[in-house]
Amino acid sequence: MKKIAVLLGDGCGVEIVESAIRVLDKVSNVYNLNLEYDYAPIGGRAYKEAGVPLPDKTVETCLKSDAVLLGAVGDWQYDSLAPELRPERALLGIRKKLNLFANLRPVKVFDELLNSSPLKPTIAKDVDIMIVRELTGDVYFGEPKGIIKKTTADNREIRVGFNNMIYDEDEITRIAHVAFKAAQKRRKKVCCVDKANVLDVSRLFREVVAQVAKQYPDVELTNMYVDNCAMQLVLNPKQFDVILTGNIFGDILSDEASTIAGSLGMLPSASMSDGKTPFLYEPIHGSAPDLAGKNVVNPIATILSASMMLEYSFDEKLAANSINKAIKAVLKENNRTKDIYETGLNLCSTTKITDLIIDKIS
Ligand code: IPM
Ligand code: MG
Questions:
Q1: Rounded to the nearest whole angstrom, what is the distance from the C-alpha of residue 286 to the centroid of ligand 2?
Q2: Mean pLDDT of 188-199
């Protein structure tokens, strides 16, 4: 039996995870996977129920499971809460508690969606990038941080906000190994993305990555500044195989890269630890409160995340592939949710496209 902790979260998280679970149930039947689900609240929902966005019980449920499937967190109604009570804090909290330092965000463009990409089809075709984003360090967690008061030279009291962009050698080393190992299974190229022309922390990042690279002579290492990378991603995305980068740069670049694939609603992710704690799978998009509950959001990013779970946590490659193939077949037959819809194709609701995917799994 494989136990999956299910964290629906807020907004459209509920619908997309429900879709992914229906797909998992079908795959489980076909491939005899014996999956069991354990639901726990996170984000705004948890705040409403328990007064905190990440209750201890939710963390315990995750720690007791073999993998975690998460929808999305956040809703405008919680925007005025104190920072430590906001839903987003739960996401950072669970990443830290489960030691999920490696976030894998594959950007793969389906041929069927080339028209949905804002890039020319010739540029977007065959793009296949793996963004390896460090997930438990950087300005996201660096201390000291805060908003404090200071007195200016002309004696005015003003506020100053600050965060600390910080990485130690151990943190850089372990994420670098993840990137090089991922590259070995792919096209054997790692591009280390940083801002080493300005930031000390980036200079160290680059140095340590180059050290680790010596253990992977079969992998080619290149370096790129993050501003250039943002440009290259739209100019010539096919040049990239694995992009290795820190937490904040990875956050920004992965949203940008998702547009190449046609929609934020298409990109899954896997967050991995050293293996002592369960991995977590979630779409890279947010909770889309404006679209939630309307049965219109694209569940494919979450279904692909479930597929990554079968592959990475349960070593069920065949079952994972059956999901990927089913998605491709459904797109090939011109079925589209609203975010990837083009005139003349079949407009599908969240539940409809899920049904079609389930039908194709065998
Ligand atoms: C992501 C999201 C999160 C992040 C937010 C919601 C805290 O943007 O997973 O990319 O910044 O990591
Ligand atoms: Mg993000």
A1: 8
A2: 98
